[in-house]
Amino acid sequence: MSVQRGHVLVVRNRFYQEFDFERLSGALPPEGDFRSPFQVDRDRVLHTTAFRRLQNKTQVFWSGEYDFYRTRLTHSLEVAQIGRSICGWLLASTDDFSPENTIDADLVEAVCLSHDLGHPPFGHAGERSLNHFMAPYGGFEGNAQTLRLLTERIFSQRRTGMDPSRAFVDGILKYKSGWGELKEVEGKEPANHFIYDEQSEYTEWTLGGRVFPGELEAGKVRDSFKSVECQVMDWADDTAYSLNDLADSVRAGFLNEESIRRWAEKRGLESGPDSPLGDLIRAISRGRIDSFVGHRIGLYVKAAKVQETENFLSGESNRYRFRIVVDQTTQAESEIFKRLAFEVVFLSTQLKQLEHKGSMMLRRLWELFLLRYVDQQPVDGQFFQLLPPEQVEEIESVETAGERARLVCDFLAGMTDGYAVRMYQRLFSPGFGSIGDIVG
């Protein structure tokens, strides 16, 4: 079914209902808007400073070191393109799908563009450091921080979030277990894959007020319960991570024919002709790594299909009536490439030394702000004004140390790599800094 709005013909997608469109405030789509609710979600994200800051946040290699390495921004754009392509492929290849009844590509694009919004400076090392610092206050997690930004921090001057739709929030919820739940289950503070305890209201809202059935216990079992759009984003993210990051690693000199063969031999993996690693080696030897990646992305897109499933939400929303199934051979190949990048590149001494430096800078900044703003103690006997006035005003307006710590963590997590380095130098390097520096 379609409807005419002025000169614009809008196709109504029966895949989604009011339950999916409803916003956090309870609002439903206004009459006469030429955009769909999910296009509004996407547009609101695109015009935020949080999204623009991704251009100077680390993906694999420190942002700004060379112009051609991927950053969190280019990675997010690539994930969004792959996500839209998967939607197009599923529409073309699924018998029951049609333009009036299909997974919404605009919604998937919004989810993909947003999936890394909450990541801090210096990549996953920065994420681990902030989680360590925030252990007494409920931890830090990049995906939980994304949820916090969308629901509480960005777009609105009143710090009330962007009033996202239910389907959009659900699409970025890769993890649905609380920090406290996992701590109780695991017997220790969780390292990752959690939401903040105070965010349980958002998971309850995405479920329409329902509670998780007993079989969906906290942890990996519950995390496997994702909307179909979240699953599309997840596979698009895996595709970009396992392929595009390989190309950067080749250009940086970490991956070459010799290092790949040596790694494959050590791990007992095939690297000869007609094997995934053999294909990668041949592409490197011919100087065709970009063609290799582009061709593989197309194969990975077409490796996805949908299957109907039943669960406690499948009767409420088509987003839970279907699940994404990826061809096992393609999935196994992706895992090999991810493992190769992790063990040869991410664990290399070169990257670990830089990660240590980034962690050290974050630690020094955290310790200073913890003393001054969380514990509300003087620094060297003086109450220095170290943060921009708007941050200080908000921090001083809350009552508990936990709330103050979360706001300080927001400030650190929102920094780009470059901003974190400059602030560190300004506060701790005697030869750096000017009264004219931009510090807001």
Could you describe the 3D structure shown?
By secondary structure, this protein is mainly alpha-helical. α4 (72-93) crosses α12 (228-251), α8 crosses α10 and α12 packs across α16. β1 (2-5) and β2 form a beta hairpin. The strands form two sheets. The protein has a two-stranded antiparallel ribbon with strand order 1-2. The chain has a two-stranded antiparallel sheet with strand order 3-4. The chain is built from 20 helices and four strands. Among the domains are: 36-117 and 226-347, Hypothetical protein af1432; 354-428, no CATH class.
Topology:
Elements: E1 2-5, E2 8-11, H1 18-21, H2 37-46, H3 49-52, H4 72-93, H5 105-114, H6 123-133, H7 142-153, H8 166-172, H9 179-186, H10 200-206, H11 220-223, H12 228-251, H13 257-267, H14 276-285, H15 289-302, E3 304-308, E4 322-326, H16 328-346, H17 349-374, H18 389-397, H19 401-414, H20 417-428
Helix pairs in contact: 2-5, 4-5, 4-12, 5-8, 5-12, 6-17, 8-10, 8-12, 12-15, 12-16, 13-14, 17-19, 17-20, 18-19
Short synopsis of the structure:
The chain is mostly helical and 440 residues long. Helix content is 54%, strand content 4%. Among the domains are: 204 residues, Hypothetical protein af1432 (Orthogonal Bundle); 75 residues, no CATH class.
What attributes characterize this protein structure?
20 helices; Hypothetical protein af1432; 4 strands; 440 residues; globular; mainly alpha; 4% strand; two-stranded antiparallel sheet; disordered N terminus; single chain
